[in-house]
Amino acid sequence: MVRDTVLTERQIEVLRLKAQGLSTSEIARRLGTTVANVSATERKARENIRRAENTLRLVRMLEAPLSVVIKPETDLNEAVREIYRRADEAGIWISYSFPSLAVLIQQGAGEKIRGRRVLSEIEVAITREGEVMVM
């Protein structure tokens, strides 16, 4: 198993045992520690994983050849049209349908969108392969 990760050996062990179906109390007994310690270790491991995923996503966004900033008060449908237009200009084919891209933006933007209205600035990056990432 690769050990050059953002996870400690203990975090890897706890996640491995969890993946095998052991309960938190079974893991605590096996490792000779408390349930609270196992829970804290798992929680920190999952936080480390989330942060590593966010870091990789940020790097992919920084390397993306196309970035589209969607301003507040923009209608979501207009934002989708702008993304398609800018991708076409850059010679990038986006494989998402209009509705799928709108849903992707809504989900990625979270509370930055209410209904179809953009509440605060959203950055959308598009890779050469047409992958769309929302920040």
SSE layout and pairing:
Elements: H1 9-19, H2 24-31, H3 35-63, E1 66-70, H4 76-89, H5 98-109, E2 113-114, E3 117-118, E4 122-126, E5 132-134
Antiparallel strand pairs: 1-4, 2-3, 4-5
Helix pairs in contact: 1-3, 2-3, 4-5
In the CATH hierarchy, the third-tier topology of the largest domain is known as: D-amino Acid Aminotransferase, Chain A, domain 1
| Number of structural domains | 2
CATH class assignment of the largest domain: Alpha Beta
CATH architecture assignment name of the largest domain: 2-Layer Sandwich
Number of strands: 5
How much helix is in the residues?
Answer: 40-55%
Strand-residue fraction?
Answer: 5-15%
Mean pLDDT: 94
Q: Catalogue the unreliable spans.
A: none
Tell me the strand order in the biggest sheet.
1-4-5
Helix-strand topology string: HHHEHHEEEE
Rounded to the nearest angstrom, the distance between the terminal CA atoms is 32 Å
Largest sheet: 3 strands, antiparallel
| Number of distinct helices | 5
**CA radius of gyration:** 20 Å
Structural category: alpha+beta
Shape: elongated
